[in-house]
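Troubleshooting log. The previous structure file for this entry was overwritten by mistake, so regenerating from the original sequence record. Sequence copied from the archived sheet and checked twice against the printout by T.R.
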Amino acid sequence: MEGIHGWGSAIARRHAAFGALVAVSLIPLWTTIHALIAYSLVQESSSHIVLIPFVSFALIYIEREKIFRTARSSPIPGLTLVLAGAAFYGLARHSSWAAEGNSFLSAAALSLVLVWTGAFLLCYGNQAARVALFPLLFLLLMIPMPDPVLQRTIYLLQQGSTEISYLLFKATGTPVLRQGFFLSVPGVTIEVAQECSGIRSSLALFITCLLAAHLFLKTSWKKLCFSLLAFPLAIIKNGIRITTLTLLSLYVDPGFLTGRLHHEGGFVFFLLGLAILAPALLMLQRSEGHSGRAGTAAVAEG
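Regenerated output below.
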């Protein structure tokens, strides 16, 4: 019993030390963190940022028994990451490249992730960090995409969504003419603008796929495949949304192109994406079960 109580008090001290290090790291970066939160509230591509640390720490809490089973301090790699994070923040703060667009916010967020990961290593060690690798890497989603990367991503989503919409119009027998990001059908011409790229719902779908893969799948390559499904599905989902709204405006009410379903209906089509993903996840889960039983049978035969 003493050993158990001793271990409990030791891990409690480690938790307290980690919490203190995280809190201390927020003090010099508070202005930057406030700017990062403000940015996430107005930028669709970063609306998830404020939730990421809470999800990451929740995952660590859920898996705490495995993660903290052999907690040992790893001071050298921990201090290396903490100092690297602090140095990178200082470099970004005084560099001209970081003044362009949102580059400084991206650099500051990366610095914070490095410092927090270093603090984790300091308090819990390499082995605990290996078990907690997914929650720690998940923190990288706190980093806003730099403007050049963001613009390229939006462009690819626009391009893919336009192509899918064009094919769906063809499939439904709707006459359609495509010119760049403009689609002309009888009575209306629509533009698949940047605002119609679906960047927010696409990222939400990707994050959901990552979490589902981590929680419900065991095989690494199946986790990767399921997570990557989010990208083509996001484009297909957005194409379905554009086509549906256009057809509803043609055959039901023109107000569908400017109404609530257009501006606030992204969640409806997000749920459609989840409904498409659910069978794929179930199939991968079942295949893991079959693989496990086959492996057990082979061992028994041997």
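The chain is about 75% helix and 5% strand. Archived copy saved in two places this time.
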